[in-house]
Amino acid sequence: MDAIYGHDYFLGQPAERSRMKTATGALYLDLLSGMLPAESASLLEIGCGQGEVLQEARRRGYRVAGIEVSQDAAAIANERLGQVTVRAEAEGSFAAILAADVIEHARDPQAFLAHLHELLLPDGVLLLVTPSLASWTRRLMRRRWMEYKVEHLFYFSPQSIRLLLERAGFRDVLIRPNRKILTLDYVARHFARFRVPVMSPAMGLLRRLVPDRLAHRHWRLPASGMLVTARKTVARVTPKVSIIVAAFNEAATFPHLMEALLQKEIAGVDREIIVVESNSTDGTRAQAQRYAECPGVRLVLQDRPRGKGHAIREGLRNANGDIVLIQDADLEYDLADYDSLLAPILSRRAEFVLGTRHAGDWKIRKFARQKSLSAALNFGHAFFTGLINVLYRQQMTDPFTMFKVFRRECLSGLEFRCNRFDFDHELVIKLVRKGYRPLEIPVNYCSRSFREGKKVRLFRDPLTWLWVDLKLRFTRLDVDRLPRVPRSLPAAGGSHPATGDAPAKDTKR
Hints:
CATH superfamily of the largest domain: Spore Coat Polysaccharide Biosynthesis Protein SpsA, Chain A
Structural class: alpha/beta
CATH class of the largest domain: Alpha Beta
CATH architecture of the largest domain: Alpha-Beta Complex
Mean pLDDT: 82
Order of helices and strands: HEHEHEEHEHHEHHHEEHEHEHEHEHEHEH
Largest sheet: 7 strands, mixed
Distance between the termini: 63 Å
Number of strands: 14
Number of helices: 16
């Protein structure tokens, strides 16, 4: 190990390298400062090098410690800061851990993350930086990617690093492209050591042409890595599922659904049923109020109907479970499918599951007396499915299914604004853009017709779907920052996803 991480491992002149690392570390500390309590906190840096970032953190009021495998670098860090670095284990608990360009060197990344989870305080923040298989440099250079080094044992995509973190007990995982403070001189030295055809000679020529004053100027440049933030949580012994039921003018089916839900047993999980009733005109509200005192049922009464999407967003705001399952108040879907939908999430094989209605037949709507209408709806479904798959590079068969099941932390950092059936599009698109690839599980389905109560508006809703599909392809996904912990770090607990609305007031009965 010391043969790899010896005195000649680091590139560039020591003073210049130190200034670049300090400036880059300041970017990381700026990010952490928005996630931690305002008062001084403890910070552990894994791979602290010669202590530049720890120096800056101490200047900002952090209590600091570090781990460094390079004996030469650790000696310099200890000379700068006192005895703050250790070679193996760090004792104590930390509000934040910074591990930049480290996890790719670990022999067991899952065990590494589990150990960091143990070192953090409840609700403590982990900041990782690691090369990304989805980075622009990797896509451009392919086999010649400069991050393919002998000391890098593992490589991660955004999806794989998120899954590892969530398996290790982290939530609120946010991933964004990393940027570092670099100089042209350093970049040229990097490509001189790690030779890449065309790129290395080009950078060498550019360095010779550029005056030293510009070659040593600091630039904030997109790097090959991803910057990952996550917060520690303590998992429940028994996971809880939040079943969200949006009810509006469903008097014919709502009581039957509720009785079936109350009788439904799901092995290995607790559950809560969140009923969002939108001031129906057919007696559904009175039916819903009968279940207000049932154990495990939470009733949210809205003052007026604002659409299915708005009701689901209200349900998300009130959900306390580890897993969310969306259930309509009609009887088109079969509750017997719950077990197969939840199984891959409970086993951590997937974080996001869709119940596809296209098991063997794309014609999911078959109205005996309205064949032309059913054909039009089936065609529209195929069109919008194809559009989303092309726009977002997916292979889904049924993105608009009611059965959307996902871990609640998938919503961290996301805001939802759609109120009607366009929410189905918004939810799937934003989860896909965040990096979750849905697992599709076949489910049973029997579509009802418009005569039986279907509420989609044929001339209005498709236009909103088209607008949302196109708009979300070209707008920024707002997942830039973990929520700040407002006081001293509290005991671990779930955070509520942002929904774009103010918290509901006086809606529970």
